[in-house]
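Q: Can someone sanity-check these two? First one:
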Amino acid sequence: MEGIIIQNISNSYKVVDKEDKIHICSARGKLKQKEYLPVAGDIVNVDEKTKAICEIKERKNYIKRPKIANIDKIVFVVSMKHPSPDLLLLDKQLAFAEKLGVESIIVFNKCDLENKENIEKIKEIYSKIGYITIKMEAKNNIGIEELRKHLKDNITVFSGNSGVGKSTIINNLFKTNVTEEGMISQKNKKGKNTTTAVTLYKLQKNTYIADTPGFSTFDITEIDYRNLDKEFKEFHKYISKCRYVGCSHIYEDEKECNVKKALKENKINISRYNNYVKIYEELKEKYKRRYN
């Protein structure tokens, strides 16, 4: 029997077959001796008699933390207020999605709480790059249907800091309370994450969405700092025209850098570029520490 894992808690796996029946399965011993174990999103073969997963189909991608496989899209939920937007975090996540080869959708939530001009200014940065961007008021069910049309026939992960409205959006998509909503602390305006396991929810045929704990803190050190420029979409058409191979597009001694030239001509957004520099230096420093 072939199916998809929709939840993994400890050594127990919920697997949905092609007839939409849910099976509680274990992992066969030989799988545990391999480099990886089954995770949510995996396509697996199950022994129908023993309910043991005996094979994991080849993955098209995999995220280590939280563990999930075979995703098609990531919806990055950014709160415009309480908590305020963290664009450095967003740019880290977008770079990671580019490395995975996964399509990104950016949702700007709580738009009713922020000045329209500020919202448009931030939205325009990412729309110009080519990202799908959606303004949303999840509590008022505004923007939900626009998002829904982008989810069909995909496995989609929802990502963002706690308190940005991920659970509210998922509940509105299903028109029912499928996941416990996180609460915002009035004392420090930080979200308290209530999600405890990666779970895939079936929205419609061949369409799953996931709520994931801790995704906002995932480690991007899988990206080599020397290749970070390739994960910034707006850099692509300028990189090849830099004078030197391996140009970081940062340092003064890098003459005839086409990325910096584009920056001066306002073809690259300054806040995105500044975040690129911060991420580059962070990854470079972590790389150095690995060998010291």
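And here is the second, same format, sequence then tokens:
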Amino acid sequence: MKNKIEVRTIQFGSRQISYNLKRCDRKKLRIVVSPDLSVDVFAPFDSRVAEIDSAIAKKAAWISSKLDQVQTYHPLPAPKQYVSGETLVYLGRQYRLKVLQAEIRSSKLIGRFLRVNVPDNKNLPIVKRTVDEWYRKRAIETLGRYLKKCSAVTSRHGVPEPLTTIRTMKKRWGSCSPKGRITLNTRLVQVPVHCIEYVIMHELCHLKHHNHSKAFYALLTRCLPDWRKRKEDLDSFKLA
């Protein structure tokens, strides 16, 4: 059955690793370790189980290391309550939310805390709106800065200057329309800077090649030689 998900396990030393095997229309095996510590393996329809097991066994050390990394640095938070003490993520680092009562609504990053002032600190929708506004402001500033930096590189390869929109998206870090407009996800400011640069560079290269052809990847490699490592790091994050 093509859409069936099979749960399998491998042994790596004393550690047992479970993973979800998903058959799909692709040419190569892909492994994704998510912040919720789930491991998804996407395999071509015609792959034999023995081949998949062998490939997973060879990557077991990497999977185990990635699980440790995700568990240590990027634990999946519970659904946000927007109360003091909660963890927020900005540029790949964790900060604590501190909600204070004040007449004027404001937000500011101080040390390892995001301090949010609101007239009523029990009004969670207002706290959420203030946090969202802070993220959006940071996104406009940060993504704009790195877009300029990346554009300086791609322009040397004949890539035009883009029209850009920054907004919240549920399923994508970024996109590029056929008309040459790049859209970047506000939540992109939650991931490390080197991952931000990868997403922006990826979308900029689509302005010249609106596909994932060899020419596209050749351009991406010229503009960002280590893009594969950056993409691997980005795959450790999941849009919530």
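A (reply): Looked at the second one. The longest strand covers residues 15-24. The chain has three domains: 5-73, 87-137, 141-234.
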